[in-house]
Every structure is written in structure tokens, then in C-alpha cells.
Amino acid sequence: MTYCVGINIKEGMVFASDARTNAGLDNVNSYSKMLNYSVGDRNIVIVTAGNLATSQAVFSSVRKDLESKDITTSLNTFENMEEVASYIGRLTVKHASPQGINEEVLQLGSSYIVGGQIKDQKSEIFLVYPQGNYIKPSDARPYLIIGEINYGKPILDRILTPEISLGDASRCALISMDSTIRSDLRVGPPIDFVVYKQGSIKPIYQKKFELDDPEYANITSSWSESIIQAFKTFPRFNWE
Fold it and tell me: Tens digit of pLDDT for each residue in 11-26?
């Protein structure tokens, strides 16, 4: 399993995904679940959770379409991000269930967060389901998460607003990822992380974090210490 988060605020976008594919006692593997494409007049980021075979097939098709001179449909040709989300939806249905949508899609499909900016349009993010349909996040909660969503969601709900700074949104994404890694062995490093500023085609920050990375460790350890200190200041029960 995995955990992925996509954040779209007024100042820009943040994406993070882990890379663990299995977590047996003596066999831990990793595989990047992020496709980051920034060329010409567009930047597009796709992160995925679910069946790895389907995700790999979808990413492979995306790359083949980009490289093919005969394909008229690729990440280079879409006019807006909704067309990109629809494209990824078609690919995941095609690879998970070649005969069309059926129960196999639910068992063998993958979900995706698709986000980016094309030309001078506003940045957008979409959640693409295994069945191929997709949704946008609400205006009040400018983020999407997929995979093991239970542990990293609380801080996103408490902190994220459309007006939050890009730096704070980035720290929030990493703390959300750290909370999930600490509580779920199926999620683990390395963490693919990319940040785009609104109107900028190239990322302003991109990194693959290990848990001992000084920048990552400084943020997450400061968060842990702050929680402990805050906990110690809680009012006492009258029976204590």
C-alpha cells in the first residue's frame, strides 16, 4: 500500500508520495509512485496508490504516448487538467479491466491524484478513481489523499486553507506523511516530494527524502517535540 497527498492552494501546489511496495519482515521493496512532468507550457504531477501492476502499466502508457510520433493524445496535447484526469481514468480502466468496467476494476485498479497547471490557467488537482471517474477537492479543503489515509488526514484538516503559505503547506504535507509512516508499516521511505509555485512551470523544490535526511528529520522531530510539550500543558483532572 502507499500514502499520497496533493495540495493545491493559492500560492502553489505540493505533492508527496511514499515508495514502499511491500513490508514483509525480511523483504521490503520500494518503487516510485510519482510521475512528474514539466515541459513547455505545462507542469503535471501524477501520484498513485493501489495495485502496483496497474499503476506501472498506466505510467508506462503515459511515457509511450509522450515518446510516440503517431499518438495525438498525450500529456503534451491536453488543453486543461480535466482532460488529463479523464485520460488517466481511461488508462487505468484499460489496464485493470480490458473488457470494460467490472468487479476486476475494484480489485485490480489504482487511484490517482492528478494535478498541475497548463498555460496561464489556474492550477488544479483531481482524484481519479479505479472506475475512471474523477472529482475535485472542495474549496474549503484544498487537498486530496489516497492510500492509507487514516493517519495523515487530521493535520491536513486542521492546518490547510487556500490562503496558507506554500512553505507551511509543504511542512504540513511532510508531517502528514511522517504521521502515516509512524503508524503504518505498509507506508515507508523514500518519500518523493515536489513543490510548484503558482505560475511557475518548473518546480521550485524537488527532493527524495529518507527518514534520516536532516531537513525532513528537523521538521518531523520539531513537530513531535511540540506535541509532547503541548500535551504537558493540558488542564489536570480534578482527581489528579
Answer: 999 999 998 776 454 4
Distance between CA 18 and CA 30 in Å, rounded? 9
Alpha helices in the chain (DSSP H): 52-67, 81-96, 103-108, 153-159, 166-183, 214-232
pTM recorded for the entire structure: 0.92
Q: Are 157 and 142 in contact (CB under 8 A)?
A: no
Which strands make up the sheet holding 42-50, listed edge to edge? Answer: 34-39, 42-50, 110-118, 124-128, 134-135
What's the angle, vertex CA 142, arms to CA 87 and CA 58, rounded to 5? 25
- What is the average pLDDT value for the chain, to the nearest integer? 90
Residue 182 burial (CB count, 10 A): 14
Among 211, 183, 70, 142, smallest CA distance to 193 is for 211
Return the pLDDT at 220. Answer: 95
DSSP character at residue 80: S
- Which strand (E) or helix (H) includes residue 12? strand 12-17
Task: Give the CA dihedral 136, 142, 144, 149, nearest 10 degrees.
Answer: -140
Read out DSSP for 119-180? Answer: TTSPPEEEEEPTTS-EEPPPSSS-EEEEES-TTTHHHHHHH--TTS-HHHHHHHHHHHHHHH
Q: How far is 224 from 151, CA to CA, in rounded Å?
A: 14
